[in-house]
Amino acid sequence: MPKTFSEKTFAPAVIKTGDTLIAAMCKAAAGREWGYIEIVTSVSNDGGASWSEEQTVIAPPARAISSDIENTKSAFFTKPTLTLANDGTVLLLVTFFPESKGTADMKYLEKKKTAFTSFDGVKCPIIYDKEGNYYIVWENGCVIDKRKAQTAFYIEDFGELYKDDEYMGNIYLNGAQGKSENGGKTTFGSHFKASKRSYIFLLKSDDNGQSWSRPVDITPSILNENDTAYIGTCGGTGITTKDGRIIIPMVSDKGNFCIYSDDNGSTWCRNQRQPYTGTDGEWTLFEVPNGHLYGYAKSKALLSADRGILWLKGDKPGIKLPKQQKATAVSGDTLLLAYPNGTGKGGRICTAAFEYDKRQAFKGIRWSKEAATVTDGAFSAPCLAVLDDSTAALLYETDSGVRFDTVTL
Q: Which residues contact 260 (CB under 8 A, 6 or more apart)?
């Protein structure tokens, strides 16, 4: 049941909830690094045999929507990450960059400009005028000056600035109004600007991906004082542990870390005492039968014995793996691992069995000797979801868009 989504889709994520598969991915107007990149989803109710039309769930503000790969006149989203909470809520976390090249050119980002401040005990966004004066975005989007006086400005939707009833542009954009090459909606930069850094937004669905909530900025609750201008989601999936903790692997220009929620995604935390794990690049998590968590980064393995709070160096997998993004999923006592073969072409699936001692206590992971080839073509950024005892869903990037396939366990 292979399927290839739109040509310029990438960074896939997939989860299963009940009888429904939900896929999320980036959809670009031009390249995969910057420019106009929105987040789209699609659902399947028949194990991937058919899929709904791609639905845009969140689109960035833009001065110009162009297929020119050099166009930077747009904010953009990237790396959607899906997780299913214990109460059935589907969580979608995404990384957002204001108009810039994101991590492709870090000089565009403002590493020293404060993005949030505490006001009446709540962490609020800060915006700046052309003279460098700062203002606080308070409840319901009202803008307060540094003397704590309310102004005539307020923000609605996704960074849309108003003064009384007059539209003043978008705080995530720069410059004058652009012209859309393909008829898309464009706008212009406002007098006030948000700090040019990455932000993490959360969307929720309580109807198996048919509709989504408005995005909520969770960045202030997960920032660390050591962070600079970039923290980001890894794409793919997070996990929900047996006791209900949601854990999302994250990256930054300082190293990996994770965030977690114990209330089905309503609030989020991060271990502030160990801000980074000592690894870098996208990583994937899974839980083993004794409740410990394993993390496979591009070049190292991690272990947490306290539900994702403290991460230590773990034993490397008993198979040779390339230093590229991987995906894991657990089906009963079987662990699945999807990965590129390291040559630039081809993807593989390997399985491992959870082993127990005579007292039925978990004692380790035993890897199979051989890996099955998924494809000999382009293969990167894989994501896995278990369909049933004998089948798994697999999404991955190709040269022509995100591809869905099934894998026999």
A: 245, 246, 247, 248, 268, 269, 270, 307, 308
- Whether the pLDDT of residue 182 is over 60: the answer is no
Residue with tokens 């896995």: 384
DSSP β-bridge partners for residue 377: none
Q: Are 74 and 35 in contact (CB under 8 A)?
A: yes
DSSP assignments along 157-199, one per residue = TTTEEEETTEEEEETT--SS----SSS-----B-SSEE-SS-E
pLDDT digits (tens, 9 = 90+) for 238-268: 999 999 999 999 999 999 999 999 999 999 9
CA dist., res. 22 & res. 7, Å (int)? 19
Closest CA to 222 of 213, 234, 233: 233
**Rounded to whole angstroms, what are the CA distances from 270 to 49, 262, 266, 279, 366?**
39, 12, 14, 16, 32
The pLDDT of 317-322, averaged and rounded, is: 85
Q: Which of 207, 231, 213, 212 has the alpha carbon at shortest distance from 221?
A: 231
Q: What are phi and psi of 103, to 5 degrees?
A: -80, -10
What pairing do the DSSP bridges indicate for beta strands 239-240 and 90-97? Answer: unpaired
The distance of Cα 32 from the centroid of its chain, to the nearest Å, equals: 14
Across the strands, what pairs with 163?
153, 166
The pair of three-digit structure tokens given for residue 333, joined into one six-digit string: 């006592």
Q: Following DSSP, what letter does each residue of 280-317 receive, concatenated?
A: -S--EEEE-TTS-EEEE-SS-EEEESSTTSS-EE-PPP
> Band of the pLDDT at 177, cuts 50, 70, 90?
low
N-terminal to C-terminal alpha carbon distance within the chain = 16
The SS3 assignment for 206 reads: coil
- DSSP letter for 47, please: T
Encoded amino acid at 128, one letter = Y
Amino acid at 209: G
Share of the chain residues as helix, strand and coil, in percent rounded to the nearest 5: 5, 45, 50
pTM check: above 0.90:
yes
The three-class DSSP label of residue 19 is coil
